[in-house]
Amino acid sequence: MRAWHVFAVFLLVGFLLYGNVLSYPFVHDDYIFIVGNAQIERWDNVSQVFLGKPSGTFIGQDNVNAYYRPLLDIFNRFLFLLFGGLPRGYHFVNVLCHVFNSVLAFLILRAMTLGPLTAFGCGLLFLVHPVQSEAVCAIAGVSNLLSAFFCFLSFLSYLRYRSAVTVFSKNARLVTAGFFFLLALLCKESIVILPALIFLYALLFPSGQQGQKKWSRYFLPLGVYLLFLAGYFTLRRLAAVSMPAIFDHPEELGLRLLSIPQTLLMYVRVLILPADLHYYRSLDILHFSFLPIVVLLALSAGVIWLSRKLDPQARKVFYFGIGWFVIALAPIMNIVPLINEYALILTSEHFLYVPLFGFLLAILAAARWAYRILPAAKIQRIAIAFFVLAVFLLALIAKEQSRYWQGEIPLFQRTLRYQPQFGRVRILLARAYYFNGDYDLAIAEYQRALDIMAGYAQRSSGTKAQATYEELMFEIHFDLAHCYEALQDPLRALDEYRRALRFRPKDGRVYNNMGLNYFFIREFDKAAACFRRALKLDPRDIMALNNLAFYHIHNANYFRAEGILRRALKLDPLSGSLRQNLQEVLATKKEVFEREKKR
């Protein structure tokens, strides 16, 4: 069973499973990283991507840590060079990356001297498991795919370093492994755990090569990895990217740590029974219970009992698989604050992309126990039947799950099916309804989101978080006004703009939009007052100047309109619309002058 045979099979299965996503549009975060990325067409600032401040599209907001993923930025620029604004190409690359990663999983297990059927089975399960659908179907999920690709290449290079014969080949493979580790970090910072996996493997599977000193088995590879890790942090520091603020709020940190057993069990349950997969999966850290701790202790006891039933080699593989799973999850086990809203902590399914490999490895190693309790004549048929059934069912779920990524409406509807009190997702669904022309549905979702955010603001009164929820309430009222404008109900739109002003009383956009609605109901003096208020807040507000000019045109005060438009053109001399408006005003002035002259 050669690698290219496996690749051919996995390629076929991968595109049968995810081929439908090639016709899907950009969704949610794809607009941030691709469509709305102002830097994506530039190639003149590559050094700044690595050494300067990261692109604005990669700086997290709303309590999410700032990212430093320069290689991912470069990769997205390269894809834009190839595919432009066509999502089909980006989806194709995602599926292809997932296939490559599944083949690398196979190659890693073969390098660990596991049998070809075991390695093939693990790679195939890695390919079809539905928990991978979030990373594969979302174009923005390429960060997980690309970082895993280099992570697997690094670990495979380390395994080949261990089997190398000459000093030159050993050193070359070890440096290559460290370099791939650095590339993985530059795609996603969570791969920082790889040195721990290397050390764990060295402990469980000590290299017994002749002439090799005992200390070098463990610490030489680890030292090379730590050297590249130091290089990564040096680059990160040069780019002025701060570290996560883990210890800023000790009380919150305590709640996050107490929720780790519940989070870990949730991840295990999702991998075994992936029936409720959904985007923006979150955990409420205020709902603490001792039950997950008890269950986790019982599960740990079961793991120890099972490990004793395995032969020594299978036991090592079993422990390494569990270690890979737990260590790979460590950076996103609520230690780093990834807060969606209030007490909801992000526990996304794409976090499981790399940990899944260790989980599958532990499951396949544990299956060796069956060889000791089942009759030898039946074990092969039972194992094949069970494996085929598992692959078939997982593939069906993954295929079904991929359908929800065909648009934002089904994506966010599914999330709210499982997390109905998630206010931000209700806002996202409302916006999706708005852009789809379903204004009444959008209004209903905005109202539900408003109730949730008002509750958060009240409970967080007197804290910094209160300002965050009040800002979201401003956005909801602002968007609700747009909905009523689309329904041609200017009075209700004006009411929403007034409510928005309670949270941001000095926002010129609100006054401009209010003025336009007053124009619609023919209250022209109130419209002018709004435009003047916007200009008082910002004398360089081009929109307010243009709108005020129209007010004077409506009142046949062309001289005032001309003066305002000339003032606006000084601020924005390249504006074609302002220049055209001025020409129309001058033409109208000339006509009026000619008529007056004839009289």
How does this model look, in words?
The chain is mostly helical and 599 residues long. It has a domain of 404 residues. It has 28 helices and three strands. The chain has a three-stranded antiparallel beta sheet, with no helix packed on it. Helix 10 packs antiparallel against helix 11. It starts with a helix and ends with a helix. About 2% of the residues have low confidence.
Summary tags:
599 residues; mainly alpha; three-stranded antiparallel beta sheet; 28 helices; 71% helix; 2% strand; elongated
Class by SSE composition: mainly alpha
Low-confidence stretches: 54-65
Can you give the mean pLDDT?
88
- Cα end-to-end separation: 98 Å
Strands, total number: 3
- Helix share of residues? over 70%
Strand content: under 5%
* Number of DSSP helical runs: 28
Largest sheet: 3 strands, antiparallel
Strand order of the largest sheet: 1-3-2
Shape field: elongated
**What integer value in Å does the Rg equal?**
30 Å
